[in-house]
Design goal:
A three-stranded antiparallel β-sheet has the order 1-2-3, covered by helices on one side. The chain starts with a helix and ends with a strand. The protein has one domain. The model has no long low-confidence stretch (mean pLDDT 84). The chain is built from four helices and three strands. By secondary structure, it is of the alpha+beta class. Helix 1 packs antiparallel against helix 3. It comes from mine drainage metagenome. This is Type IV pilus modification protein PilV.
Length: 168
Amino acid sequence: MESLVALVVLALGIMGLAGVQTRLLVESRTANYRAIAVGLIDDLNNRMLLNRNAALANPSAYALAWNDAATAAQDCQANSCSGTELATSDLNQWRNALAASLPGGKATVFLSPTDPRQIGIAIAWKANESKAADTDTTKYNSPFTVTAAANGVDCPASLICHFAYVQP
């Protein structure tokens, strides 16, 4: 009888460890996606810095809403482009990289209403790839409350977001 109780206790301990391992895997995946989002924000900021004159003269050329469709862009690697055309090309290339890097990846790029030199970038991705819709997003959405200074940008439902300001 004592050995049966010991086996039950051992089984419960192993199941607890399996649960901890599963949670650790989920959290490490989230951390990895967040690191990718930081890299993508840095990539777009570098593109703006390389096109600095256009980014400062017309920062709205880099503006992007959550569900904006890609616009036709000239191939700026093969042809000469204006600063605005380069911004459109940069955004299209960046969106392609975003879609390839993060599950369900989408982004919004907006101008700061308080500082005309700052551009806000928010990147969102699916919280759980294995579910069509992840319903338990409270622990991810609750810290992401953005004030009016961010033009009312909110993280879309069922997605995890990373938000940053950059300055071209």
